[in-house]
Amino acid sequence: MSTKKWVYLFTEVDQAEAYVGGNWDDVRGLLGGKGANLAEMTRIGVPVPPGFTITTEACNAYYENGGRFPQGMWEQTLEALHKVEEVTGKKFGDPKNPLLVSVRSGAKFSMPGMMDTILNVGLNDETAKGMVELTANERFVYDAYRRLIQMFGSVVLEIPDEAFEEALEHIKEEKGAKEDTDLDADALKELVERFKAIVREHKGFDFPQDPFEQLRMAVEAVFKSWNSKRAIDYRNATGIPHNLGTAVNIVTMVFGNMGWDSGTG
Question: Over the stretch 171-199, which tens digit does the pLDDT of each residue have?
């Protein structure tokens, strides 16, 4: 028996359309609003960074499966990631030329309580060094890394954001910096270490250095956010069905002259 297709590249919108019988509303149901839009933009030739969508069906199957990814989903995710590597010429977790991605939720209808976007997934101690070599901008890279640890910490690991904000304020005071932007590369490196210590203190384990573990945990956090109290309350109040599920969009982070820029909103 062939495994169900849980993952669609942005270039595979025709397959998604065929699967649901050609109705665009059902494509939005399968890929979520954002995933369907990104796939449609890709189809008509709007420049969209390479990426893929894990379907709402995978989210529902995750819950039916007692909080485990359905069979074949993770393997398909890794296959899609490999296709993105081929297109971008970068490699996820590679210390020399790392691929970094954003992970964001995307239900058919947007609603509060869903997981915030996590940027720079794939950054770790090693890939950060590689990014510095590539960009010749140490300050920028360590700013991106400390943001990943903060976002991952508060969104995926559910550490109160105040812990990170407090550490940021402390280091600004120490360095006599008025704004975040006044912190130099060395200060941001120090902040990365303090943010890692916050994760260790609150969770009893280290911020995951394995990029694939970062990705897996971020995807699961999107699925879990579908049944967060805020999301459930909102659906109850607005009459949105609870069985729609959310999709997960995984998109290449694009590096422009000024920083990360991409047409994914």
Answer: 999 999 999 999 999 999 999 999 999 99
Q: What are phi and psi of 147, to 5 degrees?
A: -65, -40
Tokens matching residue 187: 């200060």
Q: Bigger pLDDT: 255 or 34? A: 34
Identify residue 196 by its one-letter amino acid code.
K
Between CA 246 and CA 81 the distance in angstroms is: 20
Domain that holds residue 90: 1-122+211-258
Structure tokens at 161: 């954001």
**pLDDT(259) > 60:** no
Do both 62 and 142 map to the same domain? Answer: no
28 and 86 inside one domain = yes
CATH code of residue 173:
1.20.80.30
Q: What is the pTM of this model?
A: 0.94
Does the residue 265 lie in any domain?
Answer: no
User: What count of Cα atoms within 13 Å lies in the side-chain half-sphere of residue 207?
Assistant: 25
